[in-house]
Predict the 3D structure of the following.
Amino acid sequence: MRYFFHIAYVGANYNGWQKNGKTNSVQKVVEECLKQILKSEISVNGCGRTDAKVNASQFFFHLDVDLVLDDVFFFRLNKLLPSDISVFDVIKMDGLPHARFDAVERRYDYFVHTYKDPFLNPFSSLYLGLAIDIEKLKSATSLLLYYNDYRPFCTAPDKNEHTICHISEARWLINKEENRLRFQISSNRFLRKMIRIIVGQLLKVGEGKLAVGEFENYLIKLETPKTLSPAHPQGLYLSKVTYPYLDLKPKTSFFNLNFEEGYWKEI
């Protein structure tokens, strides 16, 4: 039987989702906990590969097992997992759907704060005193919807079969005090460090360090910037994964970091 696991995790203590040698990864911890409960070697397949220290408020992996996974299993797994990894749902699936290859859209959120706040630092990227030209930021961001080859904005592009990504959403939000920013981007796929590189370049545009035309020129000529300057990892979250047969709302209410309605508004 194939099960989909709906989980979330804080990435600060992990070298990304995927197992890689002896380094600590979310996948490694999950498989070790499952092994303890199921008393057998376990291998799971995740819906993607988040980078080191990147978070996920929604993530899926699938597991094949010849057992009925009940409420007792669910309780034991959550109890055994560390506090920075949570399981929200264990879903029995028909057939053999794939957590990674069947995903049709992924959305990421990236958070920026411009003032020192010790309670935000683990979950948002600090750009102290950041001064942004909103119109330039919006102009550059809107260009992302008109291009689909993101070779300039990834590391090691030649390691990919191709660098085509179909972005369906790209927008910035700002809080009421205008001292925090939130970037949202959705696509059918993403390349390694692509979002952090895009955020880094967009912030340069907003600061006046990079012209909107220069930003677009990278996408036209497919030339990699001399300095990529990816944004810090702790501000990035995989926030939504959608399948043709499964479209769940994220369970965590973290994203507002403020429960007041209307805290975020689009710019």
User: Anything to note?
Assistant: The first helix runs from residue 26 to 38.
